Amino acid sequence: MLSALGVGFLLGAPLVRALVDRVSPGYLLGGTLAATAVGFGLLFGSTPMATALPAAVVTGAFGSTALVVVKTSVRRITPNELLGRVGSALFTAEAVAAFAGPVIAEASSPATATLVACGGTVLSGVLAVVPLPRSVHTGHRETDARSVTWSSDG
Asked: What is the spatial distance between Cα 63 and Cα 36, in angstroms, rounded to a whole number?
């Protein structure tokens, strides 16, 4: 199963390379999170290996793409003096989610934990697509929620 997930990660690398500068980050993140949620659901809902292995590949490919989109976008739009704090907040949220999954599974069932994970992933994807107010940051960067552009003035 981990090998299939790894194959998915390897397939995600050229996918993200081709899409990260061509598709707006919000839409790309929303789509990859939705596909990751489908992969989660198929992976944890299947019992035969014939369906679990392709689901792991899908989860790996789109999950890795989502990770790269988030990290790339954060680095592009966050002012340098805030980058450490924003990165820490993201890593803390990831750690809380990684801790919450087993706690939910133990308190209820693995099926409930799967539904919560899929639902949370889809909700995150929807929130990624919702436009935020346009803002201009110092440091020659102009951004909004869906597009990241770099100004050419020095």
From this structure: 5
Apex CA 5: angle with CA 77 and CA 20, to 5°?
A: 25
Distance separating alpha carbons of residues 15 and 22, to the nearest angstrom = 11
Q: Which two tokens stand for residue 78?
A: 């966050």
CB atoms within 10 A of CB 153: 5
Give me the helices (H) in 78-108, please: 83-107
Q: Residue holding tokens 């990751």?
A: 36
User: For residue 132, what pLDDT band results from cuts at 50, 70 and 90?
Assistant: low
Q: Using CA atoms, how far apart are residues 83 and 73, in angstroms rounded to an integer?
A: 11
**Residue appearing with tokens 């899908």:** 58
Q: Where are the domains of the chain?
A: 2-150
Give this prediction's pTM: 0.77
